[in-house]
């Protein structure tokens, strides 16, 4: 069995960008925690004398190692450098230098000597990991009776920075080694959602054990609930979410003495109580993102002047509405710790665990949902079923959410939606709104995928609130769903489309909603959906949300690629002016632009209605089903919308039509290309599982290095 070597993910990222993305040879020093095979720092030897077959470190690097050891608790661990393709092992010259380094560093028990090559065509061995277009092979040199022994060692990647980002924690820099009362830890300053500035201390056994979190404004550490039942990548996110919920409950307890005053304030000035409850968010960190808590103002008191007592009373009156963290329904609040129903998934990017079948089944196992075996990485089940109750009531006298949700849509929607599952890829302004609409319409199971974190600027154009700032968008959208229906089953993935098992997630859904701003993700998810026979809905906005489109791809119709490569291209040439949203060259994603939320919702509402219809059986008599399947029958699966007068092609097409102004639409037919790999002739279609995603970060690093 190979000896393990722990290496922080941000170190691998640095090696990938500085060494793996450029031609050999390049190199640098590795430092880490003393007395342990733990790599926590990389110093690039940028000015080394190198050729395509030789790397010789500089005197500068030796001095930099000494300076770093003097300034921190980190200690020298070895040298990493690259080799030409086909040489993933240390050379005889390398081995001679290892022996000399062991002689000069008697405190070093093992000299770590990773080799980076651009060999990616052969399977990885147990001592290797992939670095985008390169691989890194880990070796260790130890003293032996006859000199020294060189053996492969097994890298164990610690997903430290990925866990911080997943939890919405914003570190000021990479964690560095410090010594505290004889113990060496990794430490960094960071911003923790809801708690402001904190110091994070992480032990060598993190993430098996919880970090120590020391708030700047507190005398002691925060008590983290560290759930080892969660997938590794989700543990810190789950602990932070539990902290925020606990803090909200504490505030609710402190506010209890003011509730009578709150009621009185609401009677005298109900508008002030409502506004204060929703605006005066008690999450100070989130409020600061909007210019400080004062930006929300206090509620007006009885005399008409702002006062802290009435402000507090108004906030108390609005707590249930304004702070979802203080959910009084313990069943619903506890559901966010419900990852016990998810088997442990692997945490290293690109590796697949064996749990996606469980995730897909738990998110869509109700009647009509489809489970799927396969692999998926870090995800979590957000919701679980609430307490039992008949259709008319629930424990505590509450009505069954299902009965309530369908009370106003009889004949339009079928109660069968409670047994249907939807996969939503992208939880931004469109995806978060659609999740809420589908939840309010009675859809019973959701899987939500989005790698991003809610930022302050998102609140004005999405379903999120100030208290959500810093949370992952997928988790925040999951909270919205559960706030509407505590019995919903919600799975969340704070990851990119390339980091989840799309085959399993698509297979576990009845309908797929592709609401991401990543064109590559749109095409790839659409390919998986078409291959699996799942209808997919693609809502999209044009520049400034002045118009938009909804594309429907289902068996027998054109796929997303044919629609966007055919009708959209023709329309761009026909219309006057550019309408397509601009793309960021570096990331491939659409550039966020100003636009009215009302215009965003115009397109998202159509997409939601189509999705609701497709979640019904084709022969269902519900009005929503007739609407959606009528579109498929007519073949008009490409809808375009104009929100302003004389917008784009509508200016010409609608000029002679009477009583026209704005908010116009066209429903267009799309033809499949016979040679399309997605929807063309069956013998020419390709399996999307064969797709290999390019590494954008490494491509960018390679571009910057030239």
From TrEMBL:
| Annotated spans, Disordered | 247-396
Against Pfam families, the record matches this protein to: ThiF
Listed CDD domains: E1_enzyme_family
Composition-biased stretches, type Gly residues, lie in: 366-382
Domain (THIF-type NAD/FAD binding fold) spans: 420-565
Where in the sequence does UniProt note compositional bias of the Basic and acidic residues kind?
Answer: 249-262
Known InterPro entries for this protein? ThiF/MoeB/HesA, ThiF_NAD_FAD-bd, Ubiquitin-activating_enz
Cellular component annotations (GO), alphabetically ordered: cytosol
Molecular function (Gene Ontology), one example: nucleotidyltransferase activity
Question: Sorted alphabetically, which SUPFAM superfamilies does this protein's record hold?
Answer: Activating enzymes of the ubiquitin-like proteins (SSF69572), JAB1/MPN domain (SSF102712)
Comp. bias regions, Low complexity: 263-273, 353-365
Protein name as catalogued: UBA/THIF-type NAD/FAD binding protein
